[in-house]
Design goal:
It is built from 9 helices and 11 strands. It is α/β, with parallel strands linked by helices.
C-alpha cells in the first residue's frame, strides 16, 4: 500500500500521531477539526495492508476523483487477474459499475470490446475522455451505458461480465438475484461472471462494529488532502455506512467535504445460492486475508451449459 495511504492515529481527536506527520499542515488540521468528526475510541485503525470496505465510494464531485482512485489503488492488481480471465473467455466484456474506466480502458487497450455501465454520468464522461486521449483504436472499442445496476436491462451478449471493486456490495440484497439472472441470461455458452467482495467475519463485526481510519490521499496537483473515514456496520440490516470527512488545503484556501457511501454486508453462502439460482456455478474462488477479521474474496462463475 502507498505510504500516503497508511492509516494513522488522528491526534487532534485525543490520539498522538497525526499532528506530527510531515505531510499534514496546520491549515488541514484546523479544517479537520471544523468537520463533524467521529469521536475517538478503540476503533481507530493504525496499520493494515489495505483499507477494507473503503473501496467503492463514488466521486461526489470532480475533485473527489483523487480519493476514489486512492481507495481503489490497493486493489489495482485485479486488472491483471481479470485480463487473464478475458484472454480465456474472449470478448465482448461487460464492466458493471465501471466508474471512470479503471478496468474498461485497459481492456480496450488490449483489444477487447467493452460495454461500460455506471450510474454516474460524469464518471462515464471521464472514461470516454481517457479513451479518446489514447486514440481511436481504444475509443472505438468502448460503449458506455448510464444505468443503475438495480434496474439493469441488457441488450447485448457477452463472454465476460465483471462486478469488480466490490460492486456487488453496493447492490441491495433484494435486487441482487434479479441482477444476477439478467447477467447470466446475456452470457454466451461458457461465458463467465467474475466478482469480488469484502468478507467480514461475524466475530469481527460483533467485536468491532465501528471502525475509524485516517489517511492522506496521494495528489499531484498542489492540494494537500487528508481524510478521516468512519465505517459503521448494522448487523440487523446487514448494511454498512462509510462517511469520509475530507479536508483539502491549497495555497489560498481550504475546502471541507463530507462524502457518504452505503453498502451491504455480503454473506458468502447467500451469494452462492443466488448465483446457483441464476444459472451460474462457482468455478473458482480466491481468498486474500486482509486482517484477522476481514478477507477479500474473488469468485469466477460460469454459465450452466
Amino acid at each position: 500500500m502507498p505510504a500516503a495511504l497508511a492509516p494513522v492515529l488522528p491526534s487532534r481527536y485525543g490520539h498522538p500521531g497525526l499532528s506530527g506527520h510531515p505531510g499534514l499542515t496546520v491549515e488541514t488540521l484546523d479544517a479537520l477539526d471544523a468537520l463533524e468528526l467521529p469521536a475517538p475510541g478503540a476503533g481507530i485503525r493504525i496499520k493494515s495492508d489495505t483499507l477494507p470496505g473503503l473501496e467503492s465510494v463514488s466521486p461526489g464531485d470532480e475533485d473527489s476523483v483523487w480519493l476514489y482512485d486512492a481507495l481503489l489503488g490497493p486493489h489495482s492488481a485485479d486488472i491483471v487477474r481479470y485480463l487473464g480471465l478475458a484472454r480465456s473467455t474472449g470478448g465482448p466484456v461487460l464492466d458493471l459499475g465501471s466508474g471512470a474506466g479503471r478496468l474498461a480502458v485497459p481492456f480496450a487497450r488490449h483489444g477487447f470490446a467493452v460495454e461500460a455501465v455506471d450510474r454516474d454520468g460524469p464518471a462515464l464522461e471521464r472514461l470516454e475522455s481517457w479513451a479518446r486521449r489514447i486514440g481511436p483504436q481504444v475509443a472505438e472499442l468502448i460503449v458506455t451505458t448510464r444505468a443503475d445496476l438495480t434496474e439493469l436491462r441488457l441488450d447485448g451478449d457477452y463472454r465476460l461480465a465483471l462486478l469488480a471493486g466490490a460492486m456487488v456490495s453496493a447492490v441491495p440484497p433484494r435486487a441482487r438475484p434479479r441482477l444476477l439472472r439478467e447477467i447470466a441470461s446475456h452470457l454466451g455458452a461458457g461465458g463467465a461472471l467474475a466478482l469480488d467482495y469484502t468478507a467480514h467475519l461475524a466475530p469481527g463485526l460483533l467485536a468491532e462494529p465501528q471502525r475509524t481510519w485516517a489517511f492522506q490521499v496521494p495528489r499531484f496537483d498542489g492540494i494537500d488532502e487528508w481524510v478521516v473515514a468512519r465505517q459503521v456496520f448494522d448487523l440487523r440490516s446487514m448494511s454498512e455506512r462509510i462517511t469520509y470527512y475530507t479536508a483539502r488545503t491549497g495555497k489560498l484556501s481550504t475546502e471541507r467535504v463530507v462524502l457518504t457511501t452505503d453498502k451491504w454486508i455480503v454473506d458468502g453462502e447467500h451469494l452462492a445460492a443466488e448465483l446457483h439460482s441464476a444459472g451460474l456455478h462457482i468455478e473458482g474462488r480466491r481468498r486474500h486475508r486482509i486482517d484477522e477479521r476481514t478477507e477479500s474474496v474473488l469468485l469466477v462463475c460460469r454459465t450452466d451449459d
